[in-house]
C-alpha cells in the first residue's frame, strides 16, 4: 500500500493516465446526466425551479442564464461507471435517470447543509440561502429530494424500486451523519472519539458514494453480493476521500483549494486528522487541546497566521497527518479489494479505479 | 347547497351520525396505521428516531414514553377509506403502508413549516425546533420524507410505484404552496389577489388531501379517471376545510379552537376571508386595509381586544365571512360531485362523505 501511494505521488496530476480517464468519464457523465437533470428541474413550479437553477449554476440570482458550474458530478459518474462495469453500455444507458436522482439527492443535502452550517460560499458562488433566504433554500432542498425519488418511482426499470429504497435509506443515514457532525462541533475537543468521527464521516460522505455505486450495480442486474461489494467499495472510497479532504483542509495549497490556509483549524473543526491527533495521548495532543480550547483570533490578527501554523504543527507532531494518510491508503486498499470481489477483470474495473484515484488524489 | 349547510347546522356535533362514523373511522385508522408508523420510525438511527418520537407525541423531550397525541390521522383515514370504497376490505388492508407514508409526508411538512413559520406550539406541545433546535428539526423532516418514499419503494404492491410518483409530485406542490404562503405574508395587504391565495391554499392543503384519496384509489386498482376523480374530491374537500378553518380562525370560540380569539387577525394573516374582504371593493375593504397596514398592538393592550373586534367586523362587513361560507359550500358540492363520478353507490361512498363532513364542520 505504501508503494501504491509513493508511486501515486510521483505522477503529476495532468500526466496521469487515470486522471485523464477520470476527466473523460466526468465530462461524459455531465453530457449525459445534465439533460435529465434539466428536464426534471424545468418541470418544477416556478418558485422552486428558480432556486434549483441558481443552485446548479444554470441561472444567476436575477434569473438570467449562467454558464453553469454544477460540481464535478462524481456521484452520477459512479452510478454510470458501476452500471457499465457490471452490465456494459446498455446498463449505463438504463441508469441515466438513477444517476440524475443520486445527483439531486446530493444537491438537496448541500442546500440544507449550507443553511444549517451557515456556509456562505458553494462552488465559488453565494449559497442559495444567502440569496433566497432560509425558507426557500429549505423548500428547494425538500423539492429536490422529492424530485429524486419521484424520478425513480416513474422509472419502469426493474432496478428502480430497489434503487429507490436504497437511496431513501441513504438519505436517512446522511441526515444522521449531518446531525452527528453538527452535534460534535458543539462539544469540547476532548469529548470526541476517533470512532465517532469515523462513523460520522462514513454516514455523511461514504453512504451516498456507496449508494451511487450500489445503484449502478442494481441497474446492471448484479446479484446481491456484488451490489453489497460495490456499496462497500464506495463507502471505503468515500472515507479515503474525506480523509484526504481533511488533510488538504489543513496543509493544502490555498491557491489550489480555493480556501484560506488552515481555515478548518481556524474554525476549530473536529476533522479526522485533528481528532486522531487529539486522542493520540502525546504531549502534542495536550498542546493542540489547549489551542482548540481558545477561540480563534483571540490574540489579534498579527498572531493569527502564527497560531494556525502552531496548530497545524501540533496536529502533525501528534501524528494526525500520518494517521490520516495511512488510513486513507488503507481505505483505498479495502475499496480495491471490495471492487475486485464484484469485478474480477481489471479492464472492466478501470473506470471505477480511475474515479477512485481521482477523488483520493487531488492537491496533496 | 344552501339547504345542505342549513341542515348541517341543525345537527349538533355529538349527535350527528356522520360525525360518529368519522370518529370510528379515525380511531380505526390510528389502530391500524400507528403500528406501521412506529415500525418505520423505530428503524431510524437514534438521533432521528428521538426527534420523530417526540414530534409524534410518543416520547417526552427527555426520551421517556408519552401517551401520544399524533393528530387526527385524517390523511391516512382518507387513503384507507378511499381504498375500501373502490376496492373493498382487501384494498384497505393492502394500503396500510401507503397510508403510513402519506402520514409521514404530512408530518415532515409540519416539522419544516414550524421551523419556517417560527410556530412554537403544535398539538398542544412545544414544536420540535423549540426543543431540539432548527438543524435537528430540519434533519428529522428530511428523514421522514425519505422514510415515506422508502416505505413505498419497499412495497411490492403494483400500486406502490404510481403512488410513490404521485406522493413525490405532491411534495413538490406542497413546497410551492408553502413558498407562496410565506412570500404572500411578506407582501402588503393590497398586493394579494384572491386567485393567488386560492391557488396557494390548494397547493398547501388541497394537494396532500387529494393525493391521499388518489393513493387509496390506486391501491384499489381503480382506473385512471377514478383516481383523478378521487384526487379532485380530496382537493375540493381540502379547500373547503381550509375556508372553514380560516373562518374559525377569526370567529371561532377560543375555548374550542385552543387559540386566542382573532389570533390570525392579530398576526395580520392573509387568510381566505381576509383577502376576499380586502379585494371586495367595499368601503369596509378600505377600513380593513388601513387596519392591516398598522402593526398589531400599536395602541397598547387595553385597545387590542377592541381592535380585533373592529377588524373582524370589517372582514364581515366587506363580505369576507359570507364569501368563505358560500365558497366552502360550493367546494363541498364539487367534492361530492367528483366522488359520485368514481363511487356511484352512496353506501360505498359513506365513509368518505363522513370524513368530508367531519373536516368541514367543526366548531363553526
TrEMBL record, chains A, B:
PROSITE patterns (UniProt xref): POLYPRENYL_SYNTHASE_1
Key word Metal-binding present: yes
Cited Pfam families: polyprenyl_synt (PF00348)
Domain of life of the native organism: Bacteria
Xref: InterPro entries: Isoprenoid_synthase_dom_sf, Polyprenyl_synt, Polyprenyl_synt_CS
UniProt keyword annotations, A-Z: Magnesium, Metal-binding, Transferase
Family: Belongs to the FPP/GGPP synthase family.
Protein name per its UniProtKB record: Polyprenyl synthetase family protein
Organism: Streptomyces spinosisporus
Amino acid at each position: 500500500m505504501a508503494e501504491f501511494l509513493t508511486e501515486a505521488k510521483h505522477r503529476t496530476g495532468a500526466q496521469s493516465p487515470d486522471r485523464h480517464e477520470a476527466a473523460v468519464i466526468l465530462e461524459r457523465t455531465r453530457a449525459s446526466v445534465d439533460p435529465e437533470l434539466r428536464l426534471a428541474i424545468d418541470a418544477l413550479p416556478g418558485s422552486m425551479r428558480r432556486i434549483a437553477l441558481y443552485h446548479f449554476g444554470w441561472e444567476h440570482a436575477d434569473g438570467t442564464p449562467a454558464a453553469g458550474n454544477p460540481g464535478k458530478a462524481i456521484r452520477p459518474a459512479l452510478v454510470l461507471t458501476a452500471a457499465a462495469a457490471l452490465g456494459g453500455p446498455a446498463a449505463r444507458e438504463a441508469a441515466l435517470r438513477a444517476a440524475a436522482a443520486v445527483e439531486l439527492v446530493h444537491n438537496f443535502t448541500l442546500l440544507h447543509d449550507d443553511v444549517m452550517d451557515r456556509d456562505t460560499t458553494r462552488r465559488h458562488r453565494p449559497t442559495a440561502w444567502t440569496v433566497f433566504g432560509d425558507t426557500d433554500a429549505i423548500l428547494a432542498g425538500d423539492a429536490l429530494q422529492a424530485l429524486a425519488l419521484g424520478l425513480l418511482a416513474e422509472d419502469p426499470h426493474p432496478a428502480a424500486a430497489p434503487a429507490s429504497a436504497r437511496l431513501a435509506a441513504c438519505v436517512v443515514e446522511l441526515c444522521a451523519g449531518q446531525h452527528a457532525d453538527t452535534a460534535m462541533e458543539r462539544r469540547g475537543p476532548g469529548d470526541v472519539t476517533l470512532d465517532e468521527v469515523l462513523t460520522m464521516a462514513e454516514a455523511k460522505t461514504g453512504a451516498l458514494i456507496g449508494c451511487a455505486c450500489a445503484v449502478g450495480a442494481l441497474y446492471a442486474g448484479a446479484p446481491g453480493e456484488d451490489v453489497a461489494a460495490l456499496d462497500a467499495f464506495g463507502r471505503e472510497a468515500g472515507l479515503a476521500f474525506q480523509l484526504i479532504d481533511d488533510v488538504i483542509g489543513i496543509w493544502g495549497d490555498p491557491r489550489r483549494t480555493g480556501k484560506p490556509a488552515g481555515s478548518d483549524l481556524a474554525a476549530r473543526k473536529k476533522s479526522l486528522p485533528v481528532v486522531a491527533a487529539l486522542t493520540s495521548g502525546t504531549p502534542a495532543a495536550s498542546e493542540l487541546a489547549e489551542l482548540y480550547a481558545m477561540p480563534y483570533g483571540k490574540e489579534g490578527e498579527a498572531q493569527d497566521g502564527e497560531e494556525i501554523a502552531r496548530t497545524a504543527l501540533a496536529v502533525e507532531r501528534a501524528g494526525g497527518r500520518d494517521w490520516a494518510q495511512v488510513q486513507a491508503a488503507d481505505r483505498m486498499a479495502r475499496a480495491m479489494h471490495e471492487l475486485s470481489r464484484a469485478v474480477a477483470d481489471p479492464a472492466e474495473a478501470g473506470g471505477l479505479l480511475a474515479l477512485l484515484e481521482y477523488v483520493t488524489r487531488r492537491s496533496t
